[in-house]
Amino acid sequence: MTLWNGADYPSSLGFLIDCLEQIPPLRDPGSRRLCLELLSDRLGKPLVVEELPTARASLIGIVQACRRRDPRALSAFVDAIEQMEPGSIPVQRARSAVEDMVALDEDRAALDLVTEDDRQELLHLLGENPSGRLAELVRAAAGPAAELTSADHRPADALATLERINAQPDGVPPLLLFVEYLAAAAADDRRAAGLRAWNDRQAARLGMTEQIKAVRLMQATEPAVAEKVVAYLVVRIEPDLLEAGTLVVVHWRHNDPAAWRPLRSEPFSGNLDAVRAHMAELVAEAETGWAKDASAIRIEFLLPYSLLNLPVDQWDLEAGSSLPRPLGLHYQVVVRSLDRARSPRWHREWRRRWDLLKQVPAGLTTPEEHWLWSDGAKWRHLTALDAKLAAQKKVVSLVLRSAPDSADPGEVLVGVRSGVPVMIWHRVESARPAFEAEIKSLRDVLPELVEHLRLLRGRARQAARPDSHVGSRVSLLWDDPARPVEPQDPPAAPIEEVPVR
């Protein structure tokens, strides 16, 4: 299966499925069957696809069946959908995604990167231990999409990984880049010459001789590889549209120091307990696999209004353990707004306020004008809050008077659509004075607020009554518009902006 890096994400299977999920008829099993009937008529032959437990799984099955059946099938599927949803923007986006996928499939089919004889020759040149930094050189060539899963990082693993990864547009295939980097790092001149001769032959066959020469000129020494990387695990959780009590989880992982390139996972579905256990597994995978060399792992939950008050920072790191280890005690844990991510009309002001937050110097007194305290969730409070945020353009952090309500987002809605990137609240009504005292003590550490809240959670675990301490009940929305994972499209189901009352 082809691996995709973050820059290729808009052309990936995951992005296409996201687009299809946003088309209302495709969320209904009966309408999906009708689309398949229309598709079969267009192809002149039946296409039977099993209906799976969730809408997303069924759509993945349909798309994969189309790709296997006929080069025209995906485009014909979008034509069939358009008959049911003429003029739909999500359908137009799905069509663009299909065109990109078809073009990339054709490119991959046309490029058999190396023959088996060439592959065996390269393995012979590599030897048993071509470099103590094999995994780092693989990443330098291919970015974060390259993950060697073998414990001993054998050369055969490196080649298998690199051959599955696409080059950037107009770029050199990662396998050829890797060979160049390895030749530059080789201590043995004979091995270096052999690697370059092999690469020259492949480059000539692929019409990339000039590109390889340019890479070689820049590789007088082996490429610098960043020693420390901050890894991000972004986890989207939302209710399943078809099954009450079921949550759908998708996560993205990022550990590339050069640019924001999150890698998207396949979805996971289950009840809340299953999701909590799944979260513990994701952290374990990060610690033992893709982020084991990171200097830090930061965890962000992308949540809709209805789930914002989940105590995700208190979820157990080790499911089933007799000694709980809260997630937010060991990692910087924040929540982000899924509704804002899917509402481009709110993004300009969001970016502006975030840019202002980044200008706040660390270690100095934070101007009072950057903070605003909400007075409550009643109609008069919300209309006043909306007016204040419209007038006070330097506000970047909002302290909520009450926790978000799943039925009425109230203060959060006002803050989200006004572009406020930081919001903080107490998840329960009790101990309000203690909460306010703690937050006031943190006003001058706004740039480091995420870490200071982690430390506050640590103090909570040392208290006489940990579960009732403020640190165990505080949520932080820390929403960075520079780290998107959601396509900026309408959501899978319409979001009703609850009127302030």
From TrEMBL:
Residues 249-481 form the vWA-MoxR associated protein C-terminal domain. InterPro entries: EAD2, VMAP-M0, VMAP_C. Residues 478-501 are annotated as: Disordered. Residues 115-216 form the vWA-MoxR associated protein middle region domain. Residues 18-98 form the Effector-associated domain. This is Uncharacterized protein. It comes from Amycolatopsis balhimycina DSM 5908.
